[in-house]
Amino acid sequence: MPELPEVETTRRGIAPYVEGREINEVIVRERRLRTPVPAGLEEALVGRRIGELGRRAKYLLIPLIDASAGQRSLLWHLGMSGSLRIARVGDLPKKHDHVDVVLDGGAILRYHDPRRFGFVDWLQGGVRDDPRLARLGPEPLSPEFTGERLYRLSRGRRLAIKPFLMDNAVVVGVGNIYAAEALYLAGIDPRRAAGRVSLERYERLAAAAREVLAAAITQGGTTLRDFVSGTGEPGYFAQRLNVYGRAGQVCRRCGGELRLITLGQRASVFCANCQT
């Protein structure tokens, strides 16, 4: 599944091609996404101009400006296998290319989703009002995400620290890959109860999560199945993964064998020597 760095990579990749452009046409080839494409979306978008793209957790925010009708925003989620890419007028759609937004500069914002677990929908009110966004925790690269916050929310929690860190009410966008990598950098056993981790270690963990996510964004996301950026380039962060997907291989720090366990129904790889 595309995680936060993949979605941010997509936002940065498509922004230069779509921001400030007017929508000339919208083509919906398949309405049966996770949330059905809203009726009348095609007509509602034509003539509107796209503003500055935003992101909240794994959701892309696409503001649409109309001089007479004011501003509304689209909420776009890539689901398990979706991608938003830039095509050009004349590029023939492929199988699973479900939505085209044709822009006045000749570019097409094209949505591809083999599994159809993603969606495009109207944002309901503002970011704080939409029920899909209202209860989300802070962004991991924002000043609101701190070790002190993790420490405070974890008190009394018996839940293992890895699923705790992956809870979107605690912090958004730290999915399975990046939680495993951050815990490795911080030297914390993913099985340890969240309530038994000290403030000092949580401060290290917050710093590690910021480090690994920033690195992934810089390098274009993680190569995961068929993920590609908005310009069609694959992610490259997988070349630098320390533990995720490396069960049975050698730890880069101590040379011990990396172990595979299951936490919260998710596979988790860690080093029993380096993570305590």
Overall description:
The protein is α+β, with helices and mostly antiparallel strands and 276 residues long. The chain has six helices and eleven strands. It has helices spanning 4-18, 41-45, 147-154, 161-165, 176-186, 199-218; strands spanning 23-28, 49-50, 54-56, 59-66, 70-77, 83-88, 97-103, 107-112, 119-122, 259-263, 266-270. Strands 2, 3, 4, 5 and 9 form a five-stranded antiparallel sheet that branches. The longest helix has 20 residues, at 199-218. The two termini are 28 Å apart. Mean pLDDT is 92; it is low at 223-228.
Mean pLDDT: 92
How can the largest sheet be summarized? Answer: 5 strands, antiparallel
**Helicity level, as a percent range?**
10-25%
Structural class: alpha+beta
Count of DSSP E strands? 11
CA gyration radius, whole angstroms: 20 Å
The rounded distance between the terminal residues' Cα atoms is 28 Å
Q: What proportion strand?
A: 15-25%
Q: Spell the H/E element sequence.
A: HEHEEEEEEEEHHHHEE
Helical stretch count? 6
Shape: elongated
Low-pLDDT residue intervals, each spanning 5 or more residues: 223-228
